[in-house]
Amino acid sequence: MRELRRDPITNDIVVLAKNRSKRPMDRVKYQTDKEIKEEYKEDCPFCRGNEKHTENPTFEIKDKDGWLVRSVYNKYPIVDSLSDEIYGEHEVIIDTNRHNGSFYNMSEKEFLYLLKMYQHRYEYMAKNEKIKYISIFKNFLRRAGASLLHPHSQIISLSIVPPEIENEISISEKYYNKYKKSLYEAIIADEIKYKNRIIHNHRDYLVIVPEITKYGGEIRVLFKSNKRFEELKERELEELAKIFKNLFKKIYDVQGYNPFNICIHTHPVNNSESKDSHFHTHIHIIPRRYSFGGFELGTDVYVSSINSDKLAKKLRFD
Ligand SMILES: [Zn+2]
Ligand SMILES: [Zn+2]
């Protein structure tokens, strides 16, 4: 039996086809990528010691041995400040000085520095009043779109609010107008009641494997309050760093060294007219083990064969 469902946050249409995971190809263990061994690589432009390739960093967090996280201008920016049609800045954040560092092996402290860096660059970019949205994302490994292997994230400021964010905000607004309650609070309450899709329930964050998503096996970190990303205090960043550390260790233990994307969906900035008071910051963690076929690309209808209860159980941590 097939069910047609919609992702409550994005409205994506998904056909639930749980038994499709029994197809023969799915029984084959996925080939994982080769792990990087060396901590330093002479020809890597992002390694500590090779700063000549990325002069004039926009920010650095350092200790006695040198920088630990570093942000630099992207040499091949998606946006620049030359056009009025789409305006913005594009920076690369080098997640760690370690060439072989990755979300799968970073320490809590490394995650904290990285989150602080995200917030620092976000606040800096938001000072420009022409900027309406700031996108923070990460591509890990080639299959997730990374062109360089040294672990890095990207942050792009934009003079427009991107359609996906407009869409999610409008869904949260319509829900509020219809039911007089917050969509995100309703989702969080339902997930807590149901329990089985929860990976981790923290005071400020809920980590779940949603049942309906267009990307099979996506994980979401939902902020329990409608606090803006830039308002997170040191303690809240520390908690989030701890969650990242534990979550990625679990993902590694269960699924191995695989490509993924991270998108942090935050509120628009410098936009007093944005109807985002019922929108909650959240993080999409998207595994890139599968790729879409012609059906998905041609119809915008997605097929999910993931058992979210089972996956959440495997990834659960305290
Ligand atoms: Zn490197
Ligand atoms: Zn989102």
Automatic annotation (TrEMBL):
It is an enzyme of class 2 (transferase). GO terms for molecular function: nucleotidyltransferase activity. Its EC number is 2.7.7.12. It comes from the Bacteria. Residues 122-314 form the DUF4921 domain. The keyword Methyltransferase does not apply. Keywords: Nucleotidyltransferase, Transferase. NCBIfam families: galT_1 (TIGR00209). This is Galactose-1-phosphate uridylyltransferase. It comes from Romboutsia faecis. The lineage of its organism: Bacteria, Bacillati, Bacillota, Clostridia, Peptostreptococcales.
